[in-house]
Description:
Blueprint: E1 3-7, H1 14-24, H2 28-36, E2 43-52, E3 55-65, E4 80-82, H3 121-129, H4 135-156, H5 166-169, H6 171-186, E5 191-194, E6 197-199, E7 203-206, E8 209-212, H7 216-225, E9 229-231, H8 241-250, E10 251-254, E11 264-269, E12 280-286, E13 298-309, H9 314-326, E14 331-338, E15 344-353, H10 357-367, E16 374-382, E17 384-392, E18 395-404, E19 407-413, H11 415-425, H12 429-444
Parallel strand pairs: 1-5, 5-10, 6-9
Antiparallel strand pairs: 1-12, 2-3, 3-4, 7-8, 11-12, 13-15, 13-16, 14-15, 17-18, 18-19
Helix pairs in contact: 1-6, 2-6, 3-4, 4-6, 4-7, 4-8, 7-8, 9-10, 11-12
Amino acid sequence: MKTLYLDIFSGISGDMFLGAMVDLGVDVAVLKREIGKLGVSGYHITTARRQKSNIEGVKFDVHLVEEDVDACDSTDHSHSHSHSHEHGHSHSHGHDHSHSHSHEPAAGQSPSHTHEGNRNYRQIKELIQQSALSDWVKQKAIAVFHRVAVAEGKVHGMPPEDVHFHEVGAVDSIVDIIGACIALEMLGRPRVLAAHVVEGTGWVNCAHGRFPVPTTATLEILGARGIALTQCEEPHELVTPTGAALLAEFVEHFGPMQGLVASRVGYGLGTRDNKTRPNVLRAVLTDSVSASSPHDWEIDTIAVLETNLDDVPAEVLGNFVEKALAAGALDVFHTPIQMKKNRPGVLLTVLCARDDADRYSHLMLCETSAFGVRRSYVERRKLHREMITVVTPYGPVEVKVGRLDGKPVQRAPEYETCKRLAYAADVPVKEVIFAAQAAALNQIL
């Protein structure tokens, strides 16, 4: 499986991410065409090969077109307002595209009209859902916007859907987030890893006033995902809210490179000349995690949390299992064991994402009789998965297909659908399951 490693030694922003993706090989013409499916106007995109601190890469810019411009396609940039600033602007026009730009009307609008940048999360979500973008891009883009919306809603003290805030609605934010999701799909939806998040210091001027770095939205987004942040000596913002939301949505694990064989390396350039480090995002693309891997299975690392219990009521244990699974744990189970003084007990085990280990440890300590939780990290090997819909004599059924080295080795029909169809047809559930598996085999071979 392809793996994308984001070396964020100098932070991350939406435009730097897209610049790195283009440098990795994403076709700009195709990217623009796909972004155009959203139906948003009032901007144009430019990309150029430039250097930053003697490192050559791609500068990705979104330019907002000013009102009543006759030559919108002209190369005369005096007719447009560049929003290539997200990572390195002087802040004279606001902090970055996740913070301001609500006052400039889009092309063809009068000043009395609502600017494209005043959309709220609900409107953005509807815009994406009604577009001709792929289902995967829609799902991921909405998820990224939701992370920003929740953070801004918390800052404003309002439900995310009801906050009319330019931070999510700005045209350049829309282009960056949609474009990032499209670029990842064009690269084959790689597994995404990243270095530890490093932020600068200082202050930024944004639509809400003057705030210290990291900004409130960036802190909220990273904190909600449980992502650790460390500040460095660079006296500027390095991680923007858009960059933070992309990390929170796509990155499986944060840490140094481990066993990566770089097949391609791309650089996305920022605008500012930093004082302590080059203002670039380095993206490393590899077709495998290790050159010695004999198969194309997916590899990740998860946390295993365990505790021995001999005094927990069955009702409490059952409630914990339900609560942990509902919270998103990968798996929760308990195993009978013999404890001290020959007491019967249970070994309670929680499997979760590495970055969620603290959250579930806290849940175990608060919701059970545990006085401690053991933690270990293990590697997993996973099949490539895809969802297909098959037609059976009882109705359509979604089937999860697992592939190894390109060959289908597992077929798992969606149980609740099979159960519903079985009840409706008054047949055993296994009959529907077998029918779905047979139909899936015929469809994928």
